[in-house]
């Protein structure tokens, strides 16, 4: 897992160096910060009304009763700005990919065909890939600082092994596929523009 985190940060650093003298935005999703998920995003221009945003997040924590929502996710995104780059409305498309290890989470609800109640008393370890469309709005606060709200909807394909209990137990399902349609991105970003 540590190697994957290092590869993610090296990739993001490469994108920063490649952007060179162009305007680059560094961002943190405040919603992820509230859930103790480490995250960073980098956005740089590629055309007068187009930018590319690459964000990544990792959550490595295990809580009491072996509750965990461990994940490593990368989400590249192309954005088209209606006004000018880094100002007001934009639309975009994103990809996502990652690995996860969820265990003993008490989320007793169903949403768009996914039963989150199955996370209680079980552990799921697997990977996911997906695609989606986004809408966002960017508020300028000053020359360097801004805020941004983003919502995305899309499709995620996942495969996971299911285990009988959160810490140990017999494997109940091997490499089971799951299809999800619904929200794929929710962000309220604090941004610093270079």
Could you say what the CATH topology is called? Porin
Shape: elongated
* Helix/strand structural class: mainly beta
CATH level-two architecture: Beta Barrel
Estimate the mean pLDDT confidence.
Answer: 85
CATH C-level class is Mainly Beta
How do the strands of the widest beta sheet line up side by side? 1-2-3-4-5-8-9-10
Largest sheet: 8 strands, antiparallel, barrel
List the total number of helices. Answer: 2
Order of helices and strands: HEHEEEEEEEEE
- For the CA atoms, what is the radius of gyration? 18 Å
Number of domains: 1
- Estimated share of beta-strand residues: over 45%
Distance between the termini: 31 Å
Helix content: 10-25%
Q: Total number of β-strand segments? A: 10
Descriptive key words:
mainly beta, 12% helix, 2 helices, 194 residues, eight-stranded antiparallel barrel, Porin, two-stranded antiparallel sheet
What does this structure look like?
This protein has one domain: Porin, CATH 2.40.160. Helices cover 12% and strands 61% of the residues. It is built from two helices and ten strands, in the order αβαβββββββββ. It is elongated, with a radius of gyration of 18 Å. Mean pLDDT is 85; it is low at 17-21.
Please give a quick description of this structure:
The protein is mostly beta strands and 194 residues long. It has helices at residues 2-19, 30-34, and strands spanning 25-29, 38-47, 50-59, 68-81, 88-103, 110-111, 114-115, 123-140, 145-163, 171-193.
């Amino acid at each position: 897992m540590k190697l994957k985190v290092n590869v993610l940060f090296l990739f993001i650093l490469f994108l920063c160096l490649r952007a060179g003298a162009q305007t680059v935005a560094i961002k943190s999703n405040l919603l992820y910060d509230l859930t103790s998920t480490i995250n960073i995003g980098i956005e740089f221009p590629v055309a007068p009304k187009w930018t590319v945003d690459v964000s990544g997040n990792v959550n490595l924590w295990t809580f009491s009763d072996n509750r965990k929502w461990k994940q490593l996710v990368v989400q590249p995104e192309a954005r088209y700005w209606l006004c000018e780059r880094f100002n007001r409305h934009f639309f975009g498309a994103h990809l996502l990919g990652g690995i996860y290890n969820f265990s003993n989470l008490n989320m007793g609800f169903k949403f768009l065909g996914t039963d989150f109640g199955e996370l209680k008393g079980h552990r799921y370890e697997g990977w996911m890939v997906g695609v989606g469309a986004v809408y966002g709005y960017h508020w300028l606060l000053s020359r360097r600082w801004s805020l941004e709200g983003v919502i995305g909807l899309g499709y995620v394909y996942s495969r996971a092994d299911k285990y009988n209990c959160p810490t140990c137990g017999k494997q109940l399902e091997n490499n089971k596929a799951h299809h999800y349609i619904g929200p794929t991105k929710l962000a309220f970003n604090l941004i610093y523009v270079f």
